[in-house]
Amino acid sequence: MYNTPDKLYLSLSVLWKQDRMWTFSELIW
Q: DSSP per residue over 1-29, as a string?
């Protein structure tokens, strides 16, 4: 039962990092 939320959190974290990267990239451009 702990596995699913953990994976979800991990994927969300990765998505959030990607989103921040994209925003940062846009800011530079």
A: --HHHHHHHHHHHHHHHHHHHHHHHHHH-
Length of the chain: 29
Entry pTM: 0.39
Token couple for 29: 């451009």
Average confidence (pLDDT) over 10-19: 74
Q: How far is CA 22 from the centre of its chain?
A: 11
Of 9, 17, 10, the residue nearest 25 (C-alpha): 17
Find where tokens 């925003």 sit: 23
